[in-house]
Amino acid sequence: MNEMIALLKQHRSIRKFTKDPVTEQQLDAILTAAQQASTSSNMQAYSVIGITDMELRRELAKLAGNQAYIEESPVFLVWCADLYRWEQAAKRHYEDEMPSTTENFIIGTVDAALAAQNAAIAAESLGLGIVYIGGIRNQPEQVSELLQLPQHVYPVFGMCIGVPDQSPLNRPRLPRQAVYFENTYKQGAIDSAIDTYDETLSAYMKARSNGKASTAWSQAMAGKAGPVRIHMRSFLEKQGFKLE
Amino acid sequence: MNEMIALLKQHRSIRKFTKDPVTEQQLDAILTAAQQASTSSNMQAYSVIGITDMELRRELAKLAGNQAYIEESPVFLVWCADLYRWEQAAKRHYEDEMPSTTENFIIGTVDAALAAQNAAIAAESLGLGIVYIGGIRNQPEQVSELLQLPQHVYPVFGMCIGVPDQSPLNRPRLPRQAVYFENTYKQGAIDSAIDTYDETLSAYMKARSNGKASTAWSQAMAGKAGPVRIHMRSFLEKQGFKLE
Do A73 and A56 share a structural domain? Predict the structure, then answer.
């Protein structure tokens, strides 16, 4: 195993940062790495907003669930799926109405994720820690207004970056046989893998919480089964994504 | 700049592979790196199908646009957004009907992309090359049948992995000022950035094609403006994604 795979294997989210800054050179390297990620047919259908204005940061932190680390991290990025820029380019040579399809929505969402993951790894290779902030989709309409996002751009997630001031345990992942299959999906492999992982994760939660919690994976997953962010569809429509 | 960032900056898609195999140890390291990627609330809402059956590979290659490298690459992976496994886990503790929301569709799509990008980087760190295959969405219904994907699982993209047998030029990316903004999106920055990038990419295309092509970016983007994969919405509905 080489050093880079060791780095990838070491990933855990960091939610507490020292007061040390992320330097401009570091941010530049992170963004350069992000830009070099794979992108569907070179559409580069994503944009990144770096939030340096602390008043704006406070407002975003409130909108994303009041997590202190959003306010306190030296760098906070909002990763957006962006079909607006593609449209501006295409319109120079294309006269019909531009399509607003589910396919393009997928392309923008995937391009944002690939670029962001490169940024995350670049940051971690510099000794920094990161956490993705799905909470940016809690109130996406207000976020989009604050960031002045044009139609056909939406915030997919945020990302805090900074020098780690904590060293949490790595969280174990699902058994391989529930995630990787040869040739065909194996529904029959799922149930026993969930049994195994429930035990693994329960033990991990116990260790991490000094015995206070021992939630199994399936219990945690049931907690996600209620109506979570059910505004996304109507928000996306307002933002111009017709999902045809 | 460290080695990891140098590696990330060197990325270019590889579409021609030597006959050298990808070893089991290499594939194991690649999948381990993938599994350690960030995931929304630990849902790990993705699965990977490795296509080792060569008859199946030929069929997938046909369905994905008949690209020879899909058939010829030592490893071909299909990355799927997977809400099925999450449902199986949650149902153990949740008795109401499970939701099928746009939010969960985003979570699955993003989780698949983050894991895949870790896999891509792990592969490149081992001296291998990769290319993402969006063409897997050309005929997703047939692909899903072949791979026996259950409801609430869909193929997001494929990925070829192997030892590179070509050394293409790095493709330059959009100017930073069209992709990264401070605090608010800057629509005013887009037009001149497209002008600049049209020139850059035109020169790159010329160099790469020995003078035979010089397509500007905006021209290439106009080529993506027609009706591309307009079946995705109805395919996803059939696959159980209600996108509520």
Answer: yes
Query: What is the phi/psi pair of residue A24, to 5°?
Result: -60, -40
- Residue-wise pLDDT for A71-118, tens only, equals 999 999 999 999 999 999 999 999 999 989 999 999 999 999 999 999
Of the candidates A37, A93, A121, the beta carbon closest to that of B218 is on A93
For residue A84, which amino acid is it? Y
Q: How far lies A53's CA from each of A121, A133, A166, in Å?
A: 25, 18, 25
Which domain, by its residues, includes A97? 3-168
Per residue in A46-70, pLDDT (tens digit) is 999 999 999 999 999 999 999 999 9
| Domain of residue A162, CATH code | 3.40.109.10
Looking at the partner chain, which of B2, B125, B184 has a beta carbon nearest the beta carbon of A2?
Answer: B125
Q: A136 at the B interface (CB within 8 A)?
A: no
B148–A85: do the CB atoms touch at under 8 Å?
Answer: no
Q: The dihedral of CA B144, B147, B152, B154: what is its sign?
A: negative
Question: Given B110, B171, B184, which is nearest A42 (Cβ)?
Answer: B171
ipTM of the predicted assembly exceeds 0.95: yes
**Window 30-89 of B, Cβ < 8 Å to A:** 31-33, 35-38, 40-44, 46-53, 56, 80, 84-86, 88-89
Does the pLDDT at position A1 exceed 90? no
Residue B150 confidence (pLDDT) above 80: yes
What Å distances lie between residue A213 and A174, B76, B111, CA to CA? 19, 40, 26
Is some CB atom of chain A closer than 8 A to the CB atom of B244? yes
| One domain, residues A99 and A216 | no
